[in-house]
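ok so i was messing around last nite and threw this chain in just to see what happens. nothing serious, just curious
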Amino acid sequence: MPGAAACHVERCYEYPIGVGPGGSRLRVAIDTPDRANVFELDLLDPSGSQVASQSNTGQSQFDMEVFAPHPAAGVWTVRVVPQYVTDASFRLRAKLEAAPVPAGAKTMLLPDLQVTPPYEFTFVAPANPANAYAPDAVNPPLSAAGVAPFSCTPDETLGIGLTLEPSQTHVTRCLRFTTGPRDAGPGPLEIDYNPAAARLGIEAPGPAFQRVYYSDGTSFLRPAGQFQFHAVHGHYHYLNFLKFQLFHVGAAHELTAAGSGTKLGLCPADELFADWTVFNQQETKTFTPNCGYDPGQASLGLNVGWGDVYRWQRPGQYVDFSGDGDGYYLLQITVNAAGLVMTAHTGDNVGYAYIHVVGDHVSILERGQGTSPWDAHKKVFTDQ
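result:
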């Protein structure tokens, strides 16, 4: 039910915004910690006419943004319509932007790849591990009456599958978690691939290329690793992009290797703002839908200011916890681990979570961007 009609049967939230003259663009965004909650975000001009609207109908977005070019001066209205919501919260932000400043000297616009620090730890395997899409509700935890028989999916236990690094060591206990990459740089992360030229990327990986943009709109391609088709998910993955490492933390904070992950590939999507306080998110550029097939050059990636979130239900979202016991652990996530993508910065591509494990219970003591709680340059996170 659209906003105006829905507000007659349920509570909507309206917020006035005073807009001054001369603005180039008005932008308003909403953020919610649980993407399973469906909100509609509407923007109404001073006459009450709706000029922009976004809705998380696919239950895949943590953040949404609406825009009004050359807004008239006056009192605008932001309307938030709960469409399918349970015990939810949200926050809003708005900005009236000035006209863009003309570009100066030609500069390279590179991505700045960062990590969403890991959270949502569990030892419960997903009930439908083959599912690759939102909503998360179609892939609930595999448990009954509080009993969870498995923490690993069958392919994870065997160490097989195109998204997993082959392993002769059969994993028996998986510590699962949610994480993902972010692009906080001035340029997009764009990976181009050509399925037709690589025999569809089914039998073997094909070459992948990073498209690098300049401030004048021109671009060039450079080699950036490989891509491969993932039959279970029905789309293509960019390989060797994420690295998961688990360490046991001693009494003096010394680190001992305790496990690693085997996830090799991913298909990113714009789901979360890289930084809520920075207004650099671009209106979504169309990559090849769902990292799919294109008869010519296809592309996948992240737009400027956006990040992706891979929740614990997805295949490969774990580190091997076999043989590990109770104690304190540090999980490190590295994006662009192989250095295949040219980036604006190279020292901010690691995220961490410092956790305490007792039985099947995992407590997060601290999570952030950086290598550990003892990193002098860390950035601590209290939200997603």
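not much to say yet. The two ends are 29 Å apart (CA to CA).
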